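Lecture 7, part 2: worked example. A protein chain together with zinc ion.
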Amino acid sequence: MYESGEDYLEAILRLQLENGFVRSVDVANKLAVSRPSVSRAMGLLEKDGYIEFTLGNTIKLTEKGQLKAEDVYGRHKLLTVFLQKITGLSEEQCEENACRVEHQIDVDVVNGIKKWVEEN
Ligand SMILES: [Zn+2]
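Predicted complex, written out as structure tokens:
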């Protein structure tokens, strides 16, 4: 999956947790991107079976999308905690950096970090 697709899935999951429903405009605001960019990305995610649109035109994660989004968001939270622990920097800065790293990092590295965080 392309990197920004993961960003969108993560944003949809977080909006769903915060608001209970997700509209395109909320996704655009959350990621600070244009509505046409959101439309394009949603088209691709829908085609790949990660999301679907409800009758009220809100965005819903499919089971496949939910699993993928939870995986990305799990990495996001883990890396944020890890970076805070080792750097002592603000949550905001660590979260921002985590969000950049989370797409590129290997699974075994994530697992190693998880183990470290549990022990420290
Ligand atoms: Zn993230």
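The mean pLDDT is 94. The pocket of zinc ion is lined by residues 10, 76, 99, 102 (CB under 6 Å). Keep this in mind for problem set question 3.
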